[in-house]
Amino acid sequence: DGGITQSPKYLFRKEGQNVTLSCEQNLNHDAMYWYRQDPGQGLRLIYYSQIVNDFQKGDIAEGYSVSREKKESFPLTVTSAQKNPTAFYLCASSKSGTGGYEQFFGPGTRLTVL
Amino acid sequence: GEDVEQSLFLSVREGDSSVINCTYTDSSSTYLYWYKQEPGAGLQLLTYIFSNMDMKQDQRLTVLLNKKDKHLSLRIADTQTGDSAIYFCAERTGGYQKVTFGTGTKLQVIP
Predict the structure, then answer these.
(1) Going along B7-84, which residue ranges are E strands?
(2) Residue B46: which region, alpha, beta or left (left: phi > 0; alpha: psi -120 to 50)?
(3) What angle do CA B68, B91, A78 make, to 5 degrees?
(4) CA-based max dimension of chain A
(5) Which residues of A touch B101 (CB under 8 A)?
(6) How many CB atoms lie within 10 A of CB B100?
(7) What is the C-alpha separation between B63 and B20, in angstroms, rounded?
(8) Buried/exposed A19-39: b ≥16 CB within 10 Å, e otherwise
(9) What is the predicted pLDDT for the residue at B2?
(10) pLDDT digits (tens, 9 = 90+) for A54-102
(11) In this complex, which of A41, A98, A105 lies closest to B42 when CB atoms are compared?
C-alpha cells in the first residue's frame, strides 16, 4: 500500500539536544512538506521541497533544518536553536504541477522537550 | 499575503446539519480544500473546489464558495458522532505547491 510514514510517533528529548524526525513516502511524489501544529494555531509551514536536492524555507524555518537527498525521504532536524520545539509535527507529500493536487499526510510525530 | 481564518469550535446535535465557515484573503486562490483531522492523527482530504466553481456536492458534504466575499463553507448533512474532528480549510495560490491552512474548527457532535 502506498503512503507516507513518520517515525517515531512520540519523541522525548532534553533541552539543548538536536533531534531528527523521519518522513518517508512511497507515493512517487516530487513535493514534500513539514508542518508544525500547535493548539489553536492550525498548521504552519516549516520547509518544503518541490524536487530532490532542492528545498525552500516556509513561514517558520528558524531553528529547523532539512535535507532532500532521495525522492522518498525528507527528514527534519529540530536544532537547539529552536526556542519552543514542543509540538506536533506533520509531514506531507503531493504531486507537483499546476493541478489541485492534494497533500497526503503522515500520522505525525509528537515531540516533547523536557 | 495569505491568511485563512476559521472559528475555533462548533457544537451540533447528532442528526443535525453542521456548517463550518472559512474566510481567506488572497483573491488569486486557485484551489480551496477541506481537510479532516481525527485526534492524534494526520490530515485527510475531504473535498476540494476549484476557484471558478460556486458549489460542489459529494454525498453528505456540500461546499459553497463565495469568491466575491472570499468565503468558503462546508456543510455536513445528518452529522454523526464519527464526524467529530478538527476541520481545516486551506487555499492554494499561485503555480507552485504552497498551501496555506486555516486555524482549524473543532466539531463536537453531541449524541
Answers:
(1) 9-13, 18-24, 29-37, 43-50, 55-58, 61-66, 71-76
(2) alpha
(3) 150
(4) 42
(5) 35, 42-43
(6) 22
(7) 10
(8) bebebbbeeebbbbbbbbbee
(9) 61
(10) 999 999 999 999 999 999 999 999 999 898 999 999 999 998 876 768 8
(11) A105
User: Which residue in the block uniquely carries the three cell numbers 481525527?
Assistant: B38
pLDDT interval class at B9 (50, 70, 90): very high
User: What integer is the mean pLDDT of B24-49?
Assistant: 90
User: Please, what is the average pLDDT of chain A?
Assistant: 92
**Torsion angle of C-alpha atoms B79, B82, B87, B92, degrees rounded to 10:** -100
Assess A31–B contact: CB distance below 8 Å, yes or no: yes
- Which residues, 6 or more positions from A78, have their beta carbon under 8 angstroms from its beta carbon? A18, A19, A20, A21, A63, A64, A85, A89, A111
Residues 6+ apart with CB under 8 A from B59: none
A 47-86 residues with CB < 8 A to B: 48, 50, 58
Contact criterion met (CB < 8 Å) for A102 and B45: yes
